[in-house]
Amino acid sequence: MVHAAPHRVAVLVYDGVTLLDVAGPAEVFKEAHRFGADYRIELRSPTGADVTSNLGIRITVDGPVAAEPAFDTAARPAAPLARPP
């Protein structure tokens, strides 16, 4: 029996990202995986360098966004709100 390749999900992270915006999508795909879907979740940053959340917590990433092969799904957390000067 031939198994299909896992569905690769990239959660895009950047300096200042809100942890809830990273954890929320990851939790959804993890639960789907628990019920039989074959999701593989990866954290990716623009350059592949680790990032720091808005709380100062360091997030280790799996590599750059431009990784090959391409991802099946990308989750992009909301950008921080611009603050007036």
Model description:
Strands 5-2-1-6 form a four-stranded parallel sheet. The model has no long low-confidence stretch (mean pLDDT 87). Helix content is 19%, strand content 26%. It has one helix and six strands. The chain is globular, with a radius of gyration of 14 Å. With 85 residues, it is α/β, with parallel strands linked by helices. It has one domain: Class I glutamine amidotransferase (GATase) domain (Rossmann fold), CATH 3.40.50.
Please trace the helix and strand order, writing H or E for each element.
Answer: EHEEEEE
- Judging from the principal axes of the Cα atoms, what is the shape? globular
Find the CATH topology.
Rossmann fold
For the sheet with most strands, the description reads: 4 strands, parallel
CATH architecture: 3-Layer(aba) Sandwich
Low-confidence segments: none
- The proportion of residues forming helix, as a percent range, comes to 10-25%
Strand content: 25-35%
Notable traits:
two-stranded antiparallel sheet, alpha/beta, 6 strands, 1 helix, 85 residues, four-stranded parallel β-sheet, Rossmann fold
